[in-house]
Amino acid sequence: MAGKSSLFYFNLCLGGYMQVLDVLKEAGNLAQKYKNMELYEQLLTVREELSGLREELIQLKEENKSLKERLELQAKVVFENGLYWIRGDRLAEDKDTPICPRCWDVDNTLMRLKIYKDSYGKESVFCYNCKTEYYL
Predict the structure, then answer these.
(1) Per-residue pLDDT tens digits for 60-95
(2) Which class for 122: exposed (0-12), middle (13-18), buried (19 or more C-beta within 10 A)?
(3) Any bridge partners for residue 97, and if so which?
(4) CA–CA gap between residue 113 and residue 46 (Å, rounded)
(5) Which secondary structure element, helix H or strand E, spans residue 96, and what is its range?
(6) What is the dihedral sign for C-alpha 39, 45, 48, 54?
(7) What residues contact 116, with CB distance under 8 A and at least 6 apart?
């Protein structure tokens, strides 16, 4: 039975969901034809459970993708001189980009900092999200 169960999961993961539903529908039609209402009700229950499993699978795939993206990002983020930096930021022509330590640590949000020179000519960075200023 384990082989059939594995095959079922494999088909479900590969998009065989509709084929499985078709088989359940046909089995339901046969149960109705032979007036086996207990079997018909069980098949409906299986169909509902299958639908729930499919939704859970979709959610888990999305969560997995998000976690992979987060790990890839964390591998690029380093802490140096009081700021976090994205190494090779593709949105900044592969240059290193400073990100806000407060937003990253507290909100787990990646906020790029605006680099500018203050009125004294000192290079600073500013976060438009949390309104925090840092000196370089």
Answers:
(1) 999 999 999 889 888 889 999 889 998 887 767 777
(2) exposed
(3) 86
(4) 53
(5) strand 95-99
(6) negative
(7) 123, 124, 125, 126
Read off the pTM. Answer: 0.57
| Token pair 């359940």 in the structure block, residue | 24
DSSP character string of 67-95? HHHHHHHHHHEEEETTEEEEEEEGGGTTE
134 DSSP β-pair partners = 125
Return the SS3 of 121: coil
CA 132/CA 46 separation, integer angstroms: 55
Separation between Cα atoms, residue 54 and residue 21, nearest integer Å: 11
Crossing angle of helices 37-76 and 2-13, rounded to 10°: 60
Q: What is the tens place of the pLDDT at every residue in 1-33? A: 445 555 555 555 555 778 888 888 889 898 899
Give the rounded distance of the alpha carbon of 44 from its chain centre: 31
Of 102, 112, 106, 107, nearest to 76 by C-alpha is 112
